[in-house]
Amino acid sequence: MKKLIFFLFLVSNFNALAQDISTRLKKAVDSFQGDDQLQQALFSLYVIDAADGTVIFDRNSLVGLAPASTQKIITSATAYEILGKDFRYQTLFLTDKNRGKGAMAVIGSGDPTLGSWRFSQTTDTSVFRRLRAALQNRNFIPDGPIRIPDTAFGRVHLPTGYIFEDIGNYYGSGHNQLNWNENQYDLNFASGSPGTPTTILSTKPALSGVQLINHVKAGSEGSGDNAYLYFVPGKNEIIAEGTVPPHKAFFTISGAVPDPAQTFSAELRKQLASLKSNTRSVPENINASDTLFTHYSPPLDSIVYWFL
């Protein structure tokens, strides 16, 4: 009898807790929806008990909305389920003697962290330092073609449905077999008086084989960053439109790299140039596809931390 009473107490206590959560959610959502900034907005919220599927709260759950960054939760959970929290991406640097004595291939696996500033072992400085050390250890001069395949995920690297205003900016970058610096670049401007044309100072990293067309002007005082970048996938032009704050000697906006493999290849060649005077010729016993260096990403749980 005591066990039955205790069980009924737990059930009633849980129901009271669920009702309390539901009441508090309703109060919070009503307050949120009453904000003046949301007068023309639409949102939805659907909360269930993961243990038994009981609906705790529902507001507009059947209304079709663009999920935006909330979809990251599903992506992350799926990655954990399929790959596991300790999974690491690999980027292989191989000899490619079938294309020439000093040729090299770089085989990516979709690593989103290669060249990223977020981890000490993934920065461009760290990756290139360890690559140079590995090449020197093998006495290998990569002075021929560099092959970087980029078809493992198909030839279209942007999801269908991306709006044109997004795909040229850093938050709309695609995902490639080889990604570099989070497929992002910084575009640096100098601006003068309101209404006057700006000057492009530089990009970081340098964009190889890309033409920048600048239509950005200096905005009014206090206008902030209202500049946007546009490109058509497969083309070599980036068009900058809009305004940036006036009277700035150095103002930065960020864009999506049109061809990460090409940008990485150009930076890689600069790094390899320093090896030529210090490294002997290619040993004859190196095979057509020997592994010279393998870069490993941080584990998946560390990547997901930044992803979310």
Give the arrangement of secondary structure elements.
Blueprint (H helix, E strand, L loop, with lengths): L1 H32 L11 E4 L6 E5 L11 H13 L6 E6 L8 E4 L16 H14 L8 E2 L16 H4 L16 E7 L8 E6 L6 E4 L2 E2 L7 E5 L6 E8 L6 E6 L3 H14 L17 E6 L3 H8 L1
Parallel strand pairs: 4-5, 8-11, 9-11
Antiparallel strand pairs: 1-2, 3-4, 3-13, 6-7, 6-12, 10-11
Helix pairs in contact: 2-6
* Main β-sheet description: 4 strands, mixed
**Count of individual helical segments:** 6
Helical fraction: 25-40%
SSE class: alpha/beta
Mean pLDDT: 87
How far the N terminus sits from the C terminus, by CA atoms, comes to: 48 Å
Instruction: Report strand %.
Output: 15-25%
Q: Can you tell me the overall shape?
A: flat
Please mark out the parts with pLDDT under 50 across 5 or more consecutive residues, or reply none. Answer: 3-12, 278-286
The tally of strands reads 13
Helix-strand pattern: HEEHEEHEHEEEEEEEHEH
Rg from alpha-carbon coordinates: 26 Å
With strands numbered from the N-terminus, the spatial order across the biggest sheet is 5-4-3-13
Question: What attributes does this structure have?
Answer:
308 residues, alpha/beta, four-stranded mixed β-sheet, 6 helices, 13 strands, 21% strand, flat
